[in-house]
Structures are given as C-alpha cells and as structure tokens.
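REQUEST ID: PR-0412
SUBMITTED BY: lab tech R.K.
PRIORITY: routine
TASK: structure prediction, single protein chain
INPUT:
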Amino acid sequence: MEEQQHKTTLDSGWLAARSTEVQFNGTQLTTTHPPTTSTSPWMEALVPGTVLATLVHNKVVPDPFYGLQNEAIIDIADSGRDYYTFWFFTNFHCKLSSNQHCDLNFRGINYSADVYLNGHKITLPKGMFRRHSLDVTDILHPEGSNLLAVLVHPPDHPGTIPPEGGQGGDHEIGKDVTTQYVEGWDWMAPIRDRNTGIWDEVSVSVTGPVKIIDPHLVSSFCDNYERAYLHNTCELENRSSWAAECSLTVQVTTELEDSICLVEHVQTQNLSIPANSRVQQHTFPELFIDKPNLWWPNGMGKQSLYNVVINIDVKGFGESDTWSHHFGFRKIESHIDDATGGRLFKVNGEPVFIRGGNWILSDGLLRLSKKRYNTDIKFHADMNFNMIRCWGGGLAERPEFYHYCDYYGLLVWQEFWITGDVDGRGDPISNPNGPQDHDLFLFCARDTVKLLRNHPSLALWVGGNEQIPPDDINAALKNDLRLHPYFERVDENSKPVGDMSPMLSDPSQYLDGTRIYIQGSLWDGFADGMGGFSDGPYEIQNPEDFFKDSFYDYGFNPEVGSVGVPVASTVRATMPSEGWEIPVFKKLSNGYVEEIPNPIWEYHKYIPYSKPTKVHDQIQLYGAAKDLDDFCLKAQLVNYIQYRALLEGWTSRMWSKYTGVLIWKTQNPWTGLRGQFYDHLLDQTAGFYGCRCAAEPIHIQLNLATYFIEVVNTTSEELSNVAIEASVWDLEGTCPYFRVHQNISLLPKKVAPIAEMRYPKSKNPKPVYFLLLKLYHMSDYRIISRNFYWLHLSGGDYKLLEPYSKKKIPLKITSKVSIEGSTYNIQMHVKNTSRIPDSKSSTFEHKHESGWFKRIHRCFAGESDGLKVTEINGHDVGVAFFLNLSVHASNSDYKEGEDTRILPVHYSDNYFSLVPGEAMPIKISFEAPQGVTPRVILHGWNYHGGQTIHEVV
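STATUS: complete
OUTPUT:
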C-alpha cells in the first residue's frame, strides 16, 4: 500500500450527530463549543464508515442485516436528505516546525461535505470516488491541539424504492457519481442512508517545503524478461516562497527472509523547483533490475514484490517527503482469441485461463478494514481463483483491497460506476446519459486511476457493467487510458519492444498506459462481444449441462451464477426463529417442484434449488428435507456439486471453447442467501471447496456429459511419468471398479481426455456410488490431484444416501496445535480406519499413504507435546462421507443456542470424504479472542451432533 512518512491516520475518537439536532454551527463546534461523549445528541462514530454504520453501532437503529429489521429503518426517500446529513467531529494533535506543511486528507466522502478546522470552513466538492487533500498549514493551532468537524451531505439523488424493488430502485442514484447498488438489487436490500459518510481513510500528513504527489511506477522488459526497467513519474510541489534545490532518490529493495532486505538499485537526481510551483519529474530507464523476480497470478508462480521508496531532500532543510509502495514486475497483455472469440489474457508472456468471481464490496455499510480485506482476498486465493471483477455498481476498490490482491495473486478487473440497469434500461427506464455531471465522473475516474495504477494485480479497466458510459465519457476514458506502444499487443513471434530510446519508451508519462480499457463488460471479447445481454444464467443447473456445447455460446462469460445457501448456524445467527422455516416444496403438474420460501428468506434474496421445466429440485434428490439443519446440509452437497461442475465444465473446454469465466458472485455484502462461497459472517459454504477442487492448477476430473476422465494442466510445465487411479466404492464399502492408467504425459496448458469411466455401463452397477480419482507421480506415488464424486445412474437420485447416514464409519484423527499470539495453527491427519477390501487398491492406498503423507508424518514423528489422538469408533465399513470441520468457543458462559463459531477460519480442505484406509492432512488457521478456549468439531453425513476432536486447553 502507498505510504507517506509522517502520516497520522485519524481512525478513532470520532463523534457523530444528526445535523438537525445540533444547535451549534461548524465554527462554534471547532472553537467554543466542542462536543464530548457525554454531550447529547453526540455518539461514538465509525470513521471510516457511514451514518448508518454509526447508528447501528450505537444501537440507535436495529441491525439492517438481521431478519426483516431493515424494514424498521426509515429510508432516505421518506425521511428526506436532512435526516441522514450528519456532523462528524474529532480532535488531533499536530505541531509544525519551521518550513513544515500539513495536509488534511480525505480519501473518500459520500457525497459532499463542509469541513471546519479550528473555526475555518472549507467546502469539499461532490463525488464519492475522489480524494481531497487540504493544505491546512496556516489553520493549525501553534500549540498543536486542533478541532475538526465535518458536515457530510448524502447523495443529491438518493431516489425512491418502488414497492416491487428492482435493480437500482427508481435509478435516480445513477445521476450521481456514487455506488449504485444502494437502492437495492436482486441480491441486496436497499441501504437506507445510501452509504452517506466519511467512508474511507482520514489522515494528516506533514512534509517539508516540497511534497511528492501521485508517483507512477511502470516496468518494461527486454531479453525475454531477463532485465526489468523501472520507469517513474512523480509530481513535485514546492510550497515555499523560494526556489528549492532538491535531491530526488529512488530506491528499490526486496525482502529476502526474516525482514532482511536487499537493496537492488538506488538512483539519485538533482533538480531545482521554482517557488510556489509544481513540476513533473521523470526517471528514465537507467534504473534497471537484472533477472528480476516476477509477479505471477495465483497458481502460476510467486507474487514477488519489491519495495520502491522515493525520497526528496531539500537543501537547507533535509528530508522533505518520502513515499513508498510495494511493486511487482510483470507485463499483462490481452487480445481477442481467434479460436474462441473470448478475451485471452497473458501475464509475462504466459496465457492465463481465467477462473474467478464477481465482487460487489466487502460490507454494505462500508465497515471496511485491512483485517477483513485480508480474509476476503485470501479466501479467493484459497479457492484457486486468479481474477476478481469489481462490479460497476459497487466500489472503486480501496488500496488495502489491492494490496492483498497483490500479495495473494488475484488479478483485478476494475469497473467504473456505470450499470445497465441504472444507465439506459430497467423499469422505469433509466437515464441513458449516465451521471448528470460528466466532468465530475471523469475527475473521479482519473483520480481513481492515479490511486490504484501502481498495483500489479490491477489487470484492466472497464467502463461499465452491461452498458458503456455516455459517448463523451467513453471517448475521454479511451483517450486517457490508451496503451503505451510497449503494452500494445504484438505478434506471437515478435520480440518485446525493449530497444526504444529511454525518452520515448517511458510509459509512466501516460495516465496509466499499461492496461487495456474495455468500454463495457459485454464488449470486446466478453460475452457476445457486441453489447448483447449475453451473460448469465443465474439459477440452479443440471451439473452435466455445464459440460455440453449448448450451455454457453461465447468464449468468456463475465457473469454466471447459481445458488448459495449458508450453513444452518448462519441462518440462525442472522434471522429470528420464523426465518428458520425451510421452503415449502410444491409439486407441479409437470412433475417439477416449485420452492416457496418464507418471507424472511425471500427478503434475503433466496433463489431456489429447482428450476421447473428444466432442473428438478437438487435438494430433494437426497430425500425430503426434515428441518433447517437437514436442508442446509443437503444444500451444501448441492453447492459443492454445482460449483465444481461449473468450473470443471468451463475448464474442460480450456482454449478450445473458452478463455475464462467469472462466477456471479463470490460473496454477499450482507446476509444474503444466493450466489456466495462464504457468507457475511465469513463461514464458507461447501461450494467454496468445490471451487477449490475444480480450479487447482493441475486437476483430474470427470466430464459429467461424456464420463471421460480428463486431466487439466494449466501450468507451463509438462508432466511426465504420471498415473491415474479410478476407484468406485459402493454403499456396502466394497470396491467393484478399479482402474489404473500409467505412463501418462501431460502437455502444458492443455486438457487431456484419458479414458472413459465405464462403471455405469458395467453389469449391475449400483444406483448410487462414490468415485475417487487420483493423479499421482509414478516415481514416489505422490498425489498431484485428488477428486471425489458421489454419483447416481442416469435418471436416478441420491435417496439411498439417507439410510447410509446411519452407518458408523471409524475415524482416527491425529492433531497438533501451535499458537503464536492469538493465532492458532492446527495440523490434522484424518484417517478412515475401516477395513480396506481385498482388491488391487489396497497396495496403491498404502503406497499413496507413504508418499502423500510422509511430510505430515515427519512433523508428528517423535512429538508428544500438543499431540492429540482422537478415535471415533464404528463397526461399519465404507466411505466417511462429507466430513466438515468447524471451530467453536468452549467457554462455560456461552448461552444455550448461541452461535459459538469462531470465524473466520482458513482450512486447507473441508467438506471432504475418505474411502476405507484413506487419510488426509488438514491444516486449520484462525485467530481466537482473548480468553476463549477453541475446540475443533467434526460433523459429517455419518457423524451427527458433532464430535469434539481437539480442544486447546
């Protein structure tokens, strides 16, 4: 993240009050009548945050994300804008020395504000996505104590919510440069204050006479990435009344290990800056790095980051300002692929098959934090995703978001604030000319580019969602974001442009120059490429349909969505008891089932697990759901199958039909009941692990349309001397089908069909069975990819799994915990100890055991401290099916029925199954609150009520 020296973040000690209830003006509040925590009507404020977040925090209004409580909060359309116009107040200490200057910085206010500092008023212009930097040097009190009050006004056009709801309400919000989801969408209830507030970082920064403004870092390469050039442009402002003789230094370092840094390069330039003026300073490609460590997307290599520090010294003063940023050396290109018609991305010359998801924002009340961003982005990396699309109705995401995308390797598609429903279509028909103030939109867009352009994860800019910006805005963005020649697409066989003269080859002179601009999400290699409404679908699908030629016609689908009910504990934690009623399953005359949800589920945007006339209810395939726990467990089975099939179906046609897919969507910014891999409380659904399985870089899978076993190699390395094992396990615990395919070689960036899985065509196949696929190295039996399916014969269902849940399958779990501060790391070895049937598989199981688990065995060998062995007894033989681990607090003062989960938790795998004799290592990482004793609980299809397998005492 961008850092400036001598910056103090003002993120605590704020107070807030409704403007109509405050009797003093801004001058009085910041001179003679400053409020205190005991002064009515002032309350503790969340800054960064919103008015509604502050009201919820102080319990002035109920939690809008719980049950139907959002309906109890007055909407700005009914209250008027004054109701959500709020004062925010704080004080801070800042005392300046001679020739020092102070800036008061607001990184984001929605929508406009009047700032009062020590009795002086400064009016901030409108626009949610713009930064404000105020030189307050002459306003600060000499003794250093300063009073700050900010009157924040809501968006000018908050709009009204039609009774039927809809996409973006009445679309009035689209007239402003702000978030558009806040009037509600088909996945989101309306946000009552429209996100009014000081929603992003506030800080004060102190510099000398010369200030560094918005450096632009760009890398270019020559000699096939053997040498990297670092280009840099920065603006320097001399705020003194005399010419400043300066020394500008750029230093590039890389961290080796244990916080030891290696200085890769230092460059110093001398310059003179006239009094009270700004200059643009360029550093040219004399600054180079030999054999740089490249930044790669997740699954393709390491995310190598360098720290770039720019320092300005002024003669007679010393260090005036410094700026630093983590920077990755990488080159990203894309073009429309001739074979598929989809947009094909390359990073460092290597094609990237895009598998990722759509993102709105982390929290609908803008309670944003580094900690939550870290969890959010790590979850995406854990799913083996390599791209996140920041949807146009949400945020221009924050530097903290991008920092973690840089760190975990998630490419980012960043859209500007245009959506089709609010800009040119919908009911009522929306304004096709976008925001009223086009100049404001462009100012915010350019400022956003400057804020985010140095992040290696940022892959492309897109004008809008399912719509393009108005012609004048679109033309301006195309011009501003045009590519430097070095980053334009070159022929496959031509060499990189590395011999340009330093002056001509400096891409940092562009506003960006390194990333493409696409005018809309359905244009230029996405969906049909011509703006036709050709993304989706968004409902439950038959899993095998994802593999069929007829499912999706275009090369890159930017939005395809499905179901996403969370676990029962989340439903109970976010809804009153009347919301725990499961849908009514209504049998229709055509044989399909219509699900009728309760009103709370409907309010939380539930979509059913059936699609009458096309998809039979996928939950009822397992038998009638008895209650909430049974429904949510069966929903997890469907979530896993649905999303694994979606990604495997796309990956099955890598490069032959598709170049990428982005799932709508990965999570919800509130307690929604659709389209998510983890819920708003940060607990994962089983779909999370279906994606994690399907998107692994090297993957073995079953084509559900052809029943061919396929191996996907998305890496740049050829695999040789590998083998495949396919074993079928029935509900009696026997292995009626076992096949091994040896001496296989797999080309890089290819999908290879290996052989048909013929068990369904065998004599007397069982109606329900399990299939285990393993891809492994023949030299040491080390497993590369493992994939477990539960399947039924064509036209059948999974109802035989109901009586199978009564089986008692024995398990042995060995676990070891280590604690660093409040962070717990638990290593587990979970083994199905039921008898291995007499078959060829037994020898392979033992060999896999020795190869796959020798690392974790070595970890446990000779250890006694912290090592715990738990055995779950059982006399049956068979598959330990759909095991699910969770972490809970075991404090004695927890009330019965209270949600005891510790969240978030990172698991190396979950919702997994083990055949007889098979074992799996599981790593668990989480933070526990102080004074809380964590325990790990195991649930599963055959394991009811929960079994404590490790309690940290």
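NOTES: The longest helix spans residues 628-652.
REVIEWED BY: pending
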